[in-house]
C-alpha cells in the first residue's frame, strides 16, 4: 500500500493539470480501498454475475486498480497523456470522454464475459473481478493519434499514429503468456475501439458545429497496415452502422450526417486544424519546459557573476 502512495507522490508534481491530479488521487484511493477493505472488490469491480443487482460497477470498475503496478502505470499514463489532451479538448470534454469511454468499455466487457461463459461453460468468466483504468489509457492513445499523428517517440522513431496499434498487438501477444488474459485484453481492445467511436462520431469541438472526425487519416482502417485495409473497411462500416445508426454520405467527401447525432464529420480542413492545434500545444509545452529547466542555470551564472 505504501508503494502505491509513493508512486502517486512521485508523479503528482509540477506541470500536470488539476483534473488529472484529482483523477490520480481517485485511482490511488480506489487501490487503497480494495486492499484495506477486500470485501469492497465485490461491489466496485466488474463481476458479471453480480452486475445485474449492482450495475454501478459498470462505472466504478474503471477506477479500481488491483495491483500496485497497475495503479502506478495508470497514474503515470493519466498525468502525461492528460497533460497533452486536456489543453486541447478542455477539462469538461476530457471528463466526458473518460466517463463515456469507461462506461461503454465496461458494458462491452460485461457482454463479452457473459458470451464467453455460455460458449465455454467456465464459471471464472462470471466471477472474475475485472477492473482497471487501462481501457481509458488505451483510448488516450487514440486521442494522441488523432491530434499529433506524426509526432515521433525519441530514439524509437515511432509515429504517434501507430501507438494504439502497437499497444493492441503487444496486448494480444501477451495474452498467450499471462494468466487470466480475459481480465486485461478485452478492456484494452474495447477501450481503443470505444475511444475511436467517440472521437470519430460523437465528440463536438467548441469551435465547429460538426461532430466527430471523418478524415481518412482517422478511419478505423488507418489503425491497420495498408494491405489489410481493403478487408477492414467493410467490417468497419458495418460496425459503425450498428453502433451509430444509418448515415448518409453526400457527394462532398467527408460531409456525413448521422440520424441520431445530427451533423457529423468535420471537413478535412477542421481535422487539419485539430492536428495543427495539437502540434502547436505540444511545441509550446516543450518550449516552456526547456525555458524552465534553463532558468536555474542562468540564475546560478548570474549569482556567480555578482559574486565576482
The CATH topology is Rhomboid-like fold
Mean pLDDT across all residues, rounded?
80
What is the assigned CATH homologous superfamily?
Rhomboid-like
**Which CATH architecture?**
Up-down Bundle
Radius of gyration: 21 Å
Query: How would you characterize the largest beta sheet?
Result: 3 strands, antiparallel
CATH class: Mainly Alpha
The ordered H/E elements are HHHHHHHHHHHHEEEH
Strands of the widest sheet, in order across it, are 1-2-3
Total beta strands: 3
Number of domains: 1
Query: What is the overall number of helices?
Result: 13
Shape: globular
Unreliable stretches (pLDDT < 50, length at least 5) are: 1-14, 246-267
Helix content class:
55-70%
CA(first)-CA(last) distance? 51 Å
Strand content: under 5%
> SS-based structural class?
mainly alpha
Transmembrane segments: 23-47, 67-85, 97-119, 125-148, 160-178, 184-202
Protein name: Rhomboid-like protein 19
Pfam families: DUF1751
Membrane topology: Multi-pass membrane protein
Amino acid at each position: 500500500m505504501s508503494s502505491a502512495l509513493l508512486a502517486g507522490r512521485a508523479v503528482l508534481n509540477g506541470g500536470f493539470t488539476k483534473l488529472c491530479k484529482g483523477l490520480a488521487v481517485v485511482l490511488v484511493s480506489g487501490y487503497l480501498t480494495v486492499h484495506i477493505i477486500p470485501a469492497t472488490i465485490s461491489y466496485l469491480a466488474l463481476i458479471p454475475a453480480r452486475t445485474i443487482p449492482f450495475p454501478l460497477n459498470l462505472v466504478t470498475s474503471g477506477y479500481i486498480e488491483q495491483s500496485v503496478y497497475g495503479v502506478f502505470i495508470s497514474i503515470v499514463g493519466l498525468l502525461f497523456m492528460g497533460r497533452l489532451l486536456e489543453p486541447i479538448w478542455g477539462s469538461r470534454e476530457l471528463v466526458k470522454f473518460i466517463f463515456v469511454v469507461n462506461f461503454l468499455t465496461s458494458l462491452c466487457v460485461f457482454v463479452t464475459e457473459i458470451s464467453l461463459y455460455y460458449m465455454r461453460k467456465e464459471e471464472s468468466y462470471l466471477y472474475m473481478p475485472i477492473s482497471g483504468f487501462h481501457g481509458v489509457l488505451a483510448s488516450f492513445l487514440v486521442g494522441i493519434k488523432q491530434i499529433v499523428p506524426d509526432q515521433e517517440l525519441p530514439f524509437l522513431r515511432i509515429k504517434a499514429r501507430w501507438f494504439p496499434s502497437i499497444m493492441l498487438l503487444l496486448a494480444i501477444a501477451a495474452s498467450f503468456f499471462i494468466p487470466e488474459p480475459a481480465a486485461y485484453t478485452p478492456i484494452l481492445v474495447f477501450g481503443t475501439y470505444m475511444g475511436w467511436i467517440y472521437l470519430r462520431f460523437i465528440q463536438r469541438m467548441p469551435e465547429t458545429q460538426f461532430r466527430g472526425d471523418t478524415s481518412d487519416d482517422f478511419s478505423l482502417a488507418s489503425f491497420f497496415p495498408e494491405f489489410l485495409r481493403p478487408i477492414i473497411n467493410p467490417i468497419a462500416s458495418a460496425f459503425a452502422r450498428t453502433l451509430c445508426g444509418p448515415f448518409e454520405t453526400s457527394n462532398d467527401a467527408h460531409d456525413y450526417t448521422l440520424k441520431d447525432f445530427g451533423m457529423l464529420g468535420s471537413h478535412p480542413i477542421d481535422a487539419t486544424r485539430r492536428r495543427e492545434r495539437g502540434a502547436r500545444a505540444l511545441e509550446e509545452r516543450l518550449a516552456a519546459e526547456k525555458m524552465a529547466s534553463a532558468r536555474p542555470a542562468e540564475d546560478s551564472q548570474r549569482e556567480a557573476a555578482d559574486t565576482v
